[in-house]
Design goal:
Structural class: mainly alpha
CATH class of the largest domain: Mainly Alpha
Pfam families: TetR_C_22, TetR_N
Keywords: DNA-binding
CATH topology of the largest domain: Tetracycline Repressor, domain 2
Radius of gyration: 22 Å
InterPro entries: DNA-bd_HTH_TetR-type_CS, Homeodomain-like_sf, HTH-type_TetR-like_transc_reg, HTH_TetR, TetR_C_22
Number of strands: 0
Helix content: over 70%
Protein name: TetR family transcriptional regulator
CATH architecture of the largest domain: Orthogonal Bundle
Shape: elongated
CATH superfamily of the largest domain: Tetracycline Repressor, domain 2
């Protein structure tokens, strides 16, 4: 065997291992969404992945390790998502557009990864996931406060924190409704969520962001 072939073998094994891990994490996401974390089992995850429990244990010692790996990958993606969603807003941007763009990015992420909501807000999660989610929430809150600070320069830090907390709480409640529906009904709930946030922020922001003279309700006549 040549030297190049010897070097190539570990790389191939590593690539196969990464594909297997991705396969197991995708299966775990499906199981966690269907049964919840508490009721899920490594046997169920192995079945969903189409592998033996022994194969699963080659990569993960238990269900908790799978959840932690899945949670860490999702939170990394979420950090990238809110980095884009909460970028500074051009003062000429209409309030509806600014809110809509941020909501759309977060909704798209959660619709693409429904296990994120199920895993992060379910009971009996591993402590490490809970700690990392708390850190993620704190960072997200700080980013929302920074964004609101550019819109409300005269607001006190306490006011900004309170407003940011309300926005995040409204979004979380709306997201739960969005994920519980599909198709046109899901789209309707997304519009309602945007409408609630716009109507909450509009009197606070005033004329700082460009927008039409009046907010038009998204509900059908």
């Amino acid at each position: 065997m040549s030297e190049n072939e010897q070097k190539e073998q570990p790389r191939r094994r590593q690539a196969r291992g990464e594909r297997r891990i991705a396969q197991l994490l995708e299966a775990a996401a499906n199981v966690f969404c269907t049964t919840g974390y508490t009721a899920a089992s490594t046997n169920a995850i192995a079945r969903e992945a189409g592998v033996s429990p022994g194969t699963l244990y080659q990569f993960f010692p238990n269900k908790e390790a799978i959840a932690i790996e899945l949670g860490e990958r999702l939170m990394h993606e979420m950090r990238e998502t809110y980095g884009e969603a909460l970028a500074p807003v051009d003062p000429a941007t209409p309030l509806e557009e600014a809110v809509g763009a941020a909501v759309d990015r977060f909704i798209a992420f959660n619709c693409d990864h429904p296990v994120f909501f199920a895993l992060m807000h379910g009971p009996d999660l591993p402590g490490r996931i809970t700690e990392e989610h708390d850190a993620l929430h704190a960072t997200l809150l700080a980013r929302v406060e920074d964004l609101l600070g550019s819109l409300l320069p005269d607001a006190s830090p306490a006011d900004l924190t309170r407003t940011a907390q309300v926005c995040l709480s409204v979004h979380k409640a709306g997201l739960e409704l969005v994920l519980a529906h599909e198709g046109a009904e899901r789209d309707a709930y997304v519009r309602e969520l945007k409408d609630v946030l716009i109507r909450y922020l509009e009197p606070l922001v005033g004329d700082r962001l460009g927008r039409p003279a009046a907010v038009t309700t998204t509900r059908s006549a």
